[in-house]
Design brief:
2 domains; about 45% helix; Ribosomal Protein S8, Chain: A, domain 1; about 15% strand; alpha+beta; four-stranded antiparallel beta sheet
């Protein structure tokens, strides 16, 4: 498959940003600015408040679980009958995540990288993608030829890129949104 160099890139920065725990102290020089973890926890709280109001409006019951994973706040909505909030292929979940990020930005004035999950959709999708990546990695090793996967969201591509890197191979994202996909490259 011929690729346009302008559309090919090594894994995008947001997709591959390595999670490096930040120091948990206040800003250097003794300022009163909250630590990174405190800011992410506050971001999660703001997101949870927004989502709680949204759930009330649509008359759905769900529990909100707030946390921090690496360098982002994580909010999960758990409960029975919430699968439709993820939607087909996670489309509704992606929209909810963007709305929630916008609400956090409006409140804090800072860009949010919050990760939202509903009814374990992302957790289950992550497991399925790792299994797919492992299968494709074996195929690439056996054939010595690159493998192109189906178009995926940025979250899904990052999961695959991480699995490929853990296996000692390299991968690239190619194409343009919303048809961006991962290509797993053979060992050199």
């Amino acid at each position: 498959m011929a690729t346009d160099p302008a559309q090919t890139e090594s894994v995008a920065a947001e997709e591959t940003a390595e999670v490096v725990p930040a120091a948990d102290d206040a800003t250097p020089g003794g300022g009163d600015r909250p630590s990174r973890t405190e800011r992410l926890e506050a971001e999660g709280d703001t997101a949870a408040d927004y989502l709680e109001e949204l759930l009330d409006i649509v008359d759905l019951d769900g529990d909100l679980v707030i946390g921090v994973e690496g360098d982002r706040a994580v909010v999960s909505i758990v409960g029975e009958g919430l699968e439709h909030l993820a939607g087909p292929d996670g489309e509704v979940l992606e929209a909810l995540q963007e709305l929630t990020r916008m609400a956090v930005h409006r409140e804090s004035g800072e860009r949010s990288r919050l990760m939202l999950d509903v009814a374990d959709f992302r957790a289950e999708r992550r497991s399925a993608l790792v299994a797919l990546a492992e299968k494709e990695i074996e195929g690439v090793r056996s054939s010595g030829e690159a493998a192109s996967l189906e178009p995926m969201s940025a979250f899904e591509r990052k999961v695959v890129h991480d699995a490929v890197a853990a296996a000692g191979l390299t991968s690239e994202s190619e194409g343009a949104e919303p048809r961006r996909y991962v290509v797993i490259l053979p060992p050199r």
